[in-house]
Amino acid sequence: METHKKGSLHIAFICCTLPQRGKKPDMELAQFQQIGHSLADQGLVYTQSGNLSMRKGQELCITRRGSILGNLTIADLVYTGIFKDDQFTMLASSELGVHRAIYKKTGAEAIVHAHPAHTIALSFAERWIIPCDMEGQLKLCKVPVIGEESATAKPGSYAGEIADALSDAPIIVVRSHGSFAIGKSLDEALDYIVILEQCCHILYLRRSMRP
Ligand SMILES: [Zn+2]
Fold first, then answer.
1. Mean local confidence (pLDDT), 34-42
2. Can you give the residue range of the structural domain that contains 116?
3. Cα 209 to ligand 1 centroid, rounded to whole Å
């Protein structure tokens, strides 16, 4: 009950503050909801996993910590600084540090992070994921896998390495964790997540058919 009250206070605070800060939350919410639904419908995130963000000048708009991507509301959008903290920083996704590092290092306008099953499964076995299908080879070439072989990644891990790798590739995978993709829009970043998962599924099927 106490937690619910605290959450309600946060929601009220955000909703009251957004218009005063000159945002266009309705337009951004529609984009976040579309991408969140798509990720959830395709099984690329589950319950409270995954996160989305868009660059907004010196700030970013990012999904709230603990939000459910398949059911986003206006209270799930958090605006905070890329370069400095403010009163909203504590509400942001636990991957905020990774998103900030990516925006500082690359020209990304949007970031999608998801937990696709086949992509994660292959990350345990590969340092690079190299698609074997035509579509994957055309769109992705080869995808780096970041992280120690013996370690299980935690939220926020490898921010520097992820940002460095995304300055050379539109999508990367964190071993045992999931994929991070960048683009000029959330749609473009989502495409990379979906294509890589399809490639990994094909790789898995191909290997399972070998004697
Ligand atoms: Zn994650």
1. 97
2. 2-209
3. 30
